[in-house]
Every structure is written in structure tokens, then in C-alpha cells.
Design brief:
single chain; Ribose 5-phosphate Isomerase B, Chain: A; five-stranded parallel β-sheet; about 15% strand
Amino acid sequence: MVIYIAADHRGFPLKEHLKPVLDAKGYEGYDLGNAIEDSKDDYPDFAALLGEKVSRSPENARGILICAGGTGMCIAVNKFKHVRATLGISPDQVYSARHDDDINVLCIASDFTDKETAEKIMEVFLVTPFGGDERYRRRLDKIAALEK
């Protein structure tokens, strides 16, 4: 599985902290930017880069987006077909989002998430399988129909 990660200037320090954690756990990670902490960058640009990648391979790719509040990234990336993103607020909530809703993009609010919590929710996001129950699939099919 390929893991894409991206952040604007407000999420940049947390992204840089999480990249070696991904590497240490053996994930194939790709940094989509920003490459520097640039106060003039805009989160929709990074959400679009990552959304395009995950949209092309929703079963084999996941994404992690980081900005100040997380909401802007989440709104932007959810515009892409086959992308199911959530704003991760706790390990338990992210477990539920992966297991029940098969999310493939995790958005993190750098202003409200410390490094330790970010590591935990990222790990839960990456290791939790989709539950696959009929009711979950039925609901995801209804969401997919909305994309048409």
C-alpha cells in the first residue's frame, strides 16, 4: 500500500515529524509537499495533489493531510471521486472511520493534535482493516452513487 502525505505551512512541522515514523514502520511513503514551510501556500493545492493520487487507486493508496484545523483539507480532498476522508480526532474515532466507513484519507489538525496523538491516530488509520459488513458496504455504495 502506498501512503501519500502532504501539509500546508501550518501542518508542515507535524508532517516532518510523522514522515520518519512512517519510514520506521516500513510504509512506502511519498511526500507531496510542501517541501518547505511557506506561509503563503494554500491547503487546497496539497489536498488536490493527494486527492488525485488516492482517487486513481483508492484500494491501494491512502493519504494523510495536515493543516491547522484539518477541516479545510478534509473538505477539499473529499471533492475527489473515490476519496473518503475524515478529520481524525482520536484513535477510537479513527478506528471507527476505517472499520465502518473504509476511509482512505486521514486529515489531522496540527493546531489541536499533539505529536504523540498524531502518531497514534496515524497508526490506527494504517493498520485497521475495513470491517466489510453488508451494512457498511450498502452505505458506501450509496455514497458512491452520489459521486455519479
